Amino acid sequence: MKFYIGSGFKNCELVNYYSKVLEENGWTHTYNWAKNINHEATVQELIEYSELEKKGIVDSDVVIILLPAGRGTHIELGMALALNKRIFLCSAVKEEFSIENTVNFYQLPDIIRLVGSAEENIKEIINCTR
Question: How far apart are CA 94 and CA 34, in angstroms?
Fold first, then answer.
């Protein structure tokens, strides 16, 4: 199974953890943006990163979104929706899905919303794709 993980910069370690565990289970990460963070990137580098992220989403079977999300994450979610990808929206806390905090797109019936630890969410992702 090929996957892409979208999230905010503050979740880089979590992105790398999900990636490591999924790869240990035979999955392929199409592009790991968290390994290429450069806070002093030029505009040209940002364009290159965006192209790699876009290709990663296009090439994936599954898109995993880790909450809390950043601005770019919602663009990644939109791309995944438009491309009819299987989407898992993962949070450690149910408050991310409360009416006060949610984004209306999080509620779409095609999106699988998971609340739990990283280990629990990864296990559920693997089980849902068998």
Answer: 25
